[in-house]
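Job type: complex structure
Entries:
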Amino acid sequence: MSETTTRTEPAAATAERAPRERKGVGRRRLYQWLFVAPALVYMLAFFGYPLVRNVLMSFQEFTPRTYFTGESPFNGLDNWRGVFDNELFGDALWQTILFTIGSLVGQFTIGLALAVFFSRRFHLSGFVRAVLLLPWLVPMVVSAVVWRRIMDEDHGILNSFLGTIGLSGDGVPWLSSPSVALLSAILVNIWIGIPFNMVILYGGLQEIPRELYEAASLDGAGPWRTFRSVTLPMLRPVVTVVLVLGFMSTIKILDLILALTGGGPADSTQTLGTLTYQLSFLQLDFGQGAVVGNVLILISAAFAVLYLRVNRADSPGK
Amino acid sequence: MNRTEGRSRARGAWNTAAALLILAVMLFPVYWMISTALQPHTSIASTDLIPSAPSFDNFSNALDTQGGSLVTSLIVSIGAVIVCLTLAAPAAYGLAQFGLKGGRAIVFGTLITQMVPGIVIANALYSAYAELNLVNSYIGLILADASLGLPFAIVLLRAFMVSIPTEVVEAAMVDGANRFTAFVRIVLPMSRNALITSGLFAFLFAWADFIFALTLNTTDDVKPVTLGIYQFIGAHVSDWGAVMATAVLSAIPAAILLVVAQKYIAAGIAGGSIK
């Protein structure tokens, strides 16, 4: 990016001007800030404020009573203790980890395979690649509702298909058994995430210089060897970005799970996101909801740091 | 020579066939949604793979019950696009061209905001909205939904506006325009494609929003279609035809976007997230 040039240019221009013009420069600066100010105010209100407020709320008694009395007294670590003593929190944390890792592994491997496949030149390649984006563009709630119908234990097309090809006689309880439901949610989320992974990885593949492949083939490397020694190393920066972005969007998923299983059966698909929702908006204990939300933010923040470090290290020229 | 040519053509045909197979598998749920929607009076048990007597009964049924929600979604999404672009375009220009002190920190902050979970925002926003009387209001939901597209729009527009030569704007200013009129008359028209792309995404993000719709509304006064369909599966699971028809209707913006703005989308996904 030409950031450095645009940054220094006006500064140099100001330095050369006579001091008496400094006042004018100050006014011009103020005027320039007016361009940025509205967005800045908005972001402080809709991102900054919630972050701060959430931390405060996690130390406040914020329960249904609050809506009658209007009071939300500070209660120290009560909310935190309440959440950590709640068995569901441990389960939700563990299920969040499984859901996130399972989704990422599936989305990434299939996305990469498709990206490599569509890098070949053939008829309709571009068209098919574009249409494949549809699952990612459809609202997640809508996808979840459709999959809910497909995965119905008794009447879903998935089980009747498996029955027809003789894979499963009496039907898989995709969404109705606590031991299968989380896997089902992961499978649906993999389906949703494949297009995103494919698009970014495809873009990364296009930027690998052709000569490297020619050199590899001159050296007698086979397809697998070429993939491991040329494609993967060259793709590494993009891979990291895809995984970190995928991580951050997966860990906060709420709509998919609410519409697919509602967190059930028997809380087997509860995640930190659904637990935050449940505590705050169903049990109306906003203080405890804020605690879970803060845990979610802490995990995301750890990855945000990773993302920014990777981004800075890998794209100095871009 | 001829033989290798024939072989590569055959391989191309195989690749196309494989691609179409991948497409069929990946888009089966979309097909199933449409197919179910076209089969009226389906009991919960029987849905044909191919609709034998397709009809639009479910769609008129869905429009009757969910038509209002679709209109609400449209109003909210368009509102969110307007808020989003009105805020993002000048900010992106300022960040791209003025070399403001602290500009880098703002760009950094913009990236960070993309990582804040929506439910966390909703959690804090709800109590603020309650105090400001913004719960169950269009303006409240529009403002919240604009937050979904804003960071993306700023990043995307800034990446584009960095490449606008400063001379172009300066020339306009020599002719007597001030910064703002130069921005409106010169920069905005030049950024048309980037504005369209970020506007389309802002629309899609707002249209797909579920968390804010669910949490910032306690009555049915402001009910977008995502919330409508969610309540639908809770109440009438027996009528899957109508549910699927609603699903099809709510997927239309995505489909239109895919056709109209196909070439901008991939660039948008990659550009907005990486650069």
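Summary: The two ends of chain A are 5 Å apart (CA to CA). The mean pLDDT of chain A is 86.
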